[in-house]
Specification:
Keywords: Membrane, Transmembrane, Transmembrane helix. The protein is an all-alpha fold. It contains 7 helices and no strands.
Length: 150
């Protein structure tokens, strides 16, 4: 019986390997590269626009980040960012708009459970670990820098 099960598993694995779709790496890489670049160009246009109208560089950087997060959250809310992600893959995840998408998507998915147990509890399921470890490591490095002045 065990030999027969093993043969069935091997046949299944062979069928799986033969029928599994193979991604076109060149096409997917190109899509990710130009879409991620286009998102970054939009950010640069916002930054240059702010600089042109006399906003200081540090403030322009902050406003640009806020604007890109807002755009990413808005596009996620209306369902456009998912289509961009389907097309571009990782090219839509890398920029700051991908971070906004990772926060808004779970919130939208669980909104039917209410604002406290749905939106509030699930909002940071994807981005939460990134925030926790990022803030914790920056805090520890800040303490090390403060005490040892590297």
């Amino acid at each position: 019986m065990k030999v027969k099960e093993k043969n069935i598993k091997q046949k299944f694995q062979q069928l799986y390997k033969e029928s599994k779709p193979r991604p076109n790496l060149y096409k997917n890489s190109f899509r990710a590269f130009w879409t991620g670049g286009l998102i970054c160009i939009v950010g640069e246009i916002i930054y240059d626009f702010l600089i042109y109208f006399g906003v200081a560089k540090t403030e322009a950087s902050a406003f640009e980040s806020i604007a890109m997060i807002f755009i990413g959250a808005l596009l996620t809310g209306v369902g456009v960012y998912d289509k961009i992600g389907d097309y571009a893959g990782a090219g839509s995840v890398v920029p700051i708009t991908g971070f906004a998408n990772s926060i808004v998507s779970p919130a939208i998915e669980f909104k039917k459970e209410g604002f406290v147990f749905g939106v509030g509890a699930k909002m940071f399921t994807v981005a939460g670990p990134v925030l926790v470890y990022g803030i914790t490591s920056s805090f520890i490095l800040g303490l090390l820098y403060y005490f040892f002045r590297w």
